[in-house]
Specification:
With 156 residues, this protein is mostly helical. It folds into two domains: 3-37; 41-153, Serine Threonine Protein Phosphatase 5, Tetratricopeptide repeat. Helices cover 59% and strands 4% of the residues. It contains eight helices and two strands, in the order αααββααααα. It has helices at residues 3-33, 46-51, 55-63, 88-94, 98-108, 112-124, 128-134, 146-153, and strands spanning 71-73, 85-87. A two-stranded antiparallel sheet has the order 1-2. Helix 6 (112-124) runs antiparallel to helix 7 (128-134). The longest helix is centred in the N-terminal third of the chain and has 31 residues, at 3-33. It starts with a helix and ends with a helix.
Length: 156
Amino acid sequence: MSRRLLLAVRIGFVAPLCAATATMVLVMVGERAGASPLSGLVTRNSAEAAGWGRAGEMLRFLRDGEDPRRVYDVRPEIISSAVRRATTLEASIWSRQLELVQLLDQAAAFDQAERAALACLAADLDIEDIVEYLAPEVTPRCEPGQALDRVMARSR
């Protein structure tokens, strides 16, 4: 066998091993720095669970004592890079799932002011079925964009 062919065979065997080792090292370094390819699979609080539409996880956080009215940090990939802080109530609107909003309403019992504010947020996001659920008898009096701006302002 010629030297060139032998070298090519060795490189063919060693290159995938080097690539796999480099990938493992990068994942380990990322894990130490707080980033992980699997980190998107785990919600950290009820607002993240609501924003992702994970009703079971949201209810578990609430059952464990989280307040759906408290403002939580939310990773940018869950709602938006412009929305990094939201309540569970607000995040549930971004899920765009009427059933999740209804479930949260049963668990947290929205008061009239919350219903109006959430209806305005749903109107800003153009989610008609949620607006209709939150304000079934009257069209909410909302300044267009104001509810959305209020939530986004927390992240600036």
